[in-house]
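Marked as duplicate of an earlier ticket. Keeping the data here for the record.
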Amino acid sequence: MSFQSTILIHPGLGNSGEGHWQTLWQEQYNLERIQQRDWETPIRTDWVQTLDEAVLRAGVSNVILVGHSLACVTIAYWAEHYQRPIKAALLVAPSDTEAASYPSGTTGFSPMPTVKLPFPSIVVRSTNDPYMTMERAQDMGEAWGSELITIPNAGHINVASGYGSWPAGLELLQQLDHL
């Protein structure tokens, strides 16, 4: 499989380790991974700046961002701040940084950004994600102007939830690639 667009993988907290679909896609399709300085105690302004630098290096207009968890929130903050006309974004299992259950250690990711994204996007949510309720994911998807895809009982759509290479996710990425 090859892509027409430049695909930038952006993991969330912990950097989507071995066996995670983001890591597998990166390795299998030679995709670029955005490298944040701090994967465990991130600061929003640092993550947004690093994301912007990666998008500018890649050429902006032909970029598709693939975010997981906290990276989805980062992408929304980045879009609000920079309004860059990228091609699209695949936002998988966004985490609710305002929830009482959200892990501590992040700085500046609350409140959740609610700006309409200036590019096409798909938000993929699970019916039992421990980091974002279905209702909250619906609210974020609507605020961001995203198409909303629901996967039953998929947890946080990560290795712990049984998601390795995730072919259905690749189909969504291909859909965005052909816009």
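See parent ticket for discussion. Residues 6-177 form a domain with the Rossmann fold fold (CATH 3.40.50.1820).
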